[in-house]
Write a structure and sequence with these properties.
Strand content: under 5%
Order of helices and strands: EEHHHHHHHH
Distance between the termini: 114 Å
Structural class: mainly alpha
Length: 262
């Protein structure tokens, strides 16, 4: 059956390609951040502009490609950081067979975070996804210095030394290895902090954050880590003595009842 017997056709002008996104008619925009601004700032500016201009016209903005991946990964960075702290805590708890010492080891992490944030602030960098990756690395790097001191302090305590002697001896013996390993890692990250060329900004964020965190963890936290061990060991010893005293008093209180029953 000929088509003209059912419909009337005519030629009109129209687009050669109709773009759709999630089955809706869409217009694709490719945007690059201006010099001196991060991709996160560009995304925020576009969202604010879309809220002002498109909401009254029944239009919405949606992300795809690299911007979509950045938004997805940015919302999970806090969860990854918390999960990293939890894993370090559980591993150290299994190693020391105690709950108090791992808390003292993790007390070194805030010093590393302070140094990393101060470093990118002084350099004028942004808190982007690459910097957050560096923060996750700093959990293990900052805990490493504390583990070196705690490990020797625990060995000194097991050999019969007092808490204060074990703490001071461990801090003195482990100072040189901590400084040497920290300097080696800092110098290894210098090429990242001064990188040039393609993807230099991402390497600047990682290198600057890690260097600042390691400098703070080495120069500041190394003076507080022995104090943390001393405090947690004193608290743990007092709790153990109280628990032993309570068990002894309960045993003494039950003994007369048994004799009286006989």
């Amino acid at each position: 059956m000929p088509l003209k017997s059912m419909v009337t056709s005519k030629f009109v002008t129209g687009p050669d390609l109709i773009t759709r996104f999630n089955n809706f008619p869409a217009v694709k925009l490719t945007v690059n951040a201006a010099k001196g601004y991060s991709s996160g700032q560009a995304i925020t500016a576009l969202e604010e502009l879309a809220k002002e201009e498109l909401s009254a016209k029944d239009y919405q903005i949606a992300w795809s490609g690299q911007a979509f991946e950045q938004l997805q990964s940015g919302s999970t960075s806090g969860m990854v950081f918390a999960f990293g702290l939890l894993m370090v805590f559980l591993i150290l708890s299994a190693k020391y067979e105690r709950w108090s010492l791992p808390i003292g080891v993790l007390m070194a992490v805030p010093f590393a975070l302070f140094g990393a944030l101060l470093a990118i602030l002084l350099r004028g960098l942004n808190n982007d996804i690459y910097f957050q990756i560096g923060l996750t690395m700093l959990i293990a790097l900052a805990a490493k210095n504390a583990i070196l001191i705690f490990e020797f302090a625990v060995l000194n305590r097991e050999s019969g030394q007092s808490i204060i002697d074990a703490t001071l001896s461990a801090a003195k013996e482990r100072l040189r290895p901590i400084i040497m390993t920290s300097l080696a890692f800092i110098l290894g990250c210098v090429p990242l902090a001064i990188a040039v060329g393609a993807s230099a900004n991402s390497r600047h964020s990682i290198g600057t954050g890690v260097i600042g965190g390691m400098v703070a963890a080495t120069a500041i936290a190394v003076f507080f880590i022995p104090m943390f061990y001393y405090l947690f060991e004193i608290i743990s010893s007092k709790l153990s003595k109280n628990k032993t005293a309570n068990q002894t008093s309960q045993t003494t209180a039950k003994s007369p009842n048994r004799k009286k029953g006989r």
